[in-house]
Design goal:
It is a single chain. The chain is an alpha/beta fold. It has one domain. 22% of the residues lie in helices and 12% in strands. The protein contains seven helices and eight strands. Strands 1, 2, 3, 4, 5, 6, 7 and 8 form an eight-stranded mixed beta sheet that branches. The protein is globular. The N terminus is likely disordered. This is DUF3152 domain-containing protein. It comes from Cellulomonas humilata. Keywords: Membrane, Transmembrane, Transmembrane helix.
Length: 315
């Protein structure tokens, strides 16, 4: 039996408690994942999202961009967002398993957009989502099990607060997920540069780029997470931070955990901080005692108890 590395991913002996309705799935041998079951989800969810008006700061990330753009244009009329907000150009090859990385055309992102603010132009919440969900980038509560296996870089740059050593971050979203890229990126960067974050002591800050970066934060479908995190065993349920990539599982971004069910925004902050923490060299920690604040690097995706949930490295 192959030995895994339990200290580089949110895995542990209690994984079964997180997946009562999801059968365990073996890793697939093919390096490039094609749209399967997820393809049938795009049309009905896009139609359900017709009530949304997407402003210049929003982008619809879908596996079939031209088809999706046509659907949105037909529904919203000639005044809808131009096609370049959906069509992605500037393809460049990735050396990782034959996957493609697509670099999106730049769009204007409002300066200082906070993760608690819905993307500009949203006039109605999609069914099944809260304002906090939409602010985190979600356009649908559906968990796409296996998306396109290619990724789009969220365009835009942000120098960050500029205190201490600056680490560059590139934010990416897997094609085929109904996620607003700029809103997801805003959540990631606001979390990393929060006063309670890794730079709380002034020694570190994070700057976003859409070019080469030291760290990559990727939102991906459960099946793609399994591929990117291998040989670590994420089992379609959890996330990982390894090889310069914080790979966040869409299932957890949508559903959080039972302990964080009342505050999914806090869980998303935990997920970003925890996986980026691995990239900064931090290893897993254990709960120090009942009723105490859980260390950020505790595997809270499985269980925070007997500690209390905590999404921040400081205090």
């Amino acid at each position: 039996m192959t030995t895994r590395e339990p200290l580089r991913t949110d895995q542990g002996p209690t994984r079964a408690s997180l997946r009562p309705s999801v059968p365990r799935r073996r890793l697939r041998a093919a390096p490039v994942r094609r749209r399967g079951r997820s393809a049938g989800l795009v049309l009905p969810v896009v139609v359900a999202a017709i009530g949304l008006t997407l402003g210049a700061g929003s982008a619809l990330w879908a596996a079939d961009a031209p088809q999706t753009a046509a659907l949105v244009d037909a529904a919203l009329g000639p005044s809808s967002a131009p096609a370049e907000t959906v069509d992605r150009t500037g393809l460049q090859s990735r050396a990782s398993g034959g996957r493609e990385l697509r670099v999106a055309e730049p769009v204007d992102v409002p300066v200082g957009m906070l993760p608690t603010d819905p993307p500009p132009g949203i006039v109605a919440l999609p069914p099944g989502l809260t304002a906090q969900d939409v602010a985190s980038g979600l356009l649908s509560p559906v968990v796409v099990e296996a998306a396109a296996g290619t990724f789009s870089v969220v365009p835009g740059t942000d120098p960050g607060p500029g205190t201490g050593a600056v680490r560059t971050v590139r934010v990416e979203v897997e094609d085929g997920l109904l996620v607003d890229g700029p809103a997801f990126a805003a959540t990631v960067m606001a979390t990393l540069n929060d006063p309670r974050g890794w730079g709380a002591d002034g020694s570190l800050s994070f700057a976003r780029t859409d070019g080469d970066a030291e760290l990559r934060v990727i939102l991906a479908s459960p099946a793609t997470v399994d591929d990117l995190c291998a040989p670590l065993d994420t089992g379609g349920e959890v996330s990982c931070g390894t090889n310069g990539r914080a790979v966040l599982n869409l299932r957890r971004w949508v559903l959080a955990t039972e302990e964080y069910a009342a505050d999914k925004a806090a869980y998303r902050q935990y997920l970003v901080n925890h996986e980026v923490g691995h990239l900064l060299g931090h290893r897993h920690e254990r709960c120090p005692g009942a009723g105490q604040r859980a260390p950020l690097m505790q595997q809270q995706s499985y269980r925070a108890a007997p500690c209390t949930p905590n999404p921040w490295p400081f205090p």
